[in-house]
Write a structure and sequence with these properties.
Blueprint lengths: L1 H11 L10 H25 L4 H25 L1 H11 L4 H33 L6 H13 L6 H13 L20
């Protein structure tokens, strides 16, 4: 609660002489925290994974952790959101937080992720048992990463699947993926 009070005081109280804190610096710090952490910590841990299962599990763990962090920070910085961000026409905190994962992390590894998912689908088609829930959750991430829009799934996964000769209905054509099956 102390952090929220500090943020509130900086954002909502009248300007006070002799205080260096202001909403500009606070927003910049928020950006810096998220922008520095993703490429320096998360991306290297994903790039070092070579096994499909390890990569996909680490991706989902990193995504869940990042969503939690972005949500928590956006709540702490809520007074910043309420006034300064709208006044300055800046991206909302949560949307900015999600883009900090999507742009430097997901964009850098999405081809590797797509290849890992397709490799697992190929394995299953050859008769091997795979973790379908893991595949479903990764495909859900392709949708969630664009805040519920299908663009990333369609462009970065579905188009490749269709071009590779995989037929049938895909996620965006109306099949809901569940833990009992997928494409």
């Amino acid at each position: 609660m102390m952090f929220y009070t500090i943020v509130y005081n900086i954002c909502c109280k009248p300007a006070r002489p002799h205080h260096n804190e202001d909403p500009d610096q606070m927003y910049d710090k928020y950006e810096q925290i998220l922008e520095d952490y993703m490429p320096s910590k998360v991306l290297p841990s994903l790039r070092e994974k070579h096994d499909e299962y390890d990569l996909l599990r680490e991706l989902l763990k990193s995504w869940a952790n990042h969503k939690f962090l972005a949500k928590w920070l956006s709540r702490v910085f809520l007074p910043l959101q309420a006034g300064y961000i709208h006044r300055m026409a800046l991206p909302e905190l949560n949307a900015f937080g999600l883009s900090c994962f999507r742009d430097p992390v997901f964009e850098a590894i999405k081809d590797k992720v797509k290849d890992a998912v397709i490799a697992l689908i190929d394995r299953e088609r050859e008769g091997e048992e795979i973790d379908r829930t893991l595949v479903k959750n990764v495909l859900d991430l392709f949708v969630e990463i664009e805040v519920g829009k299908m663009h990333c799934y369609e462009k970065d996964f579905e188009e490749h699947m269709l071009a590779s000769g995989y037929g049938g209905l895909l996620f965006s054509e109306g099949i809901k993926l569940d833990s009992s099956g997928f494409v």
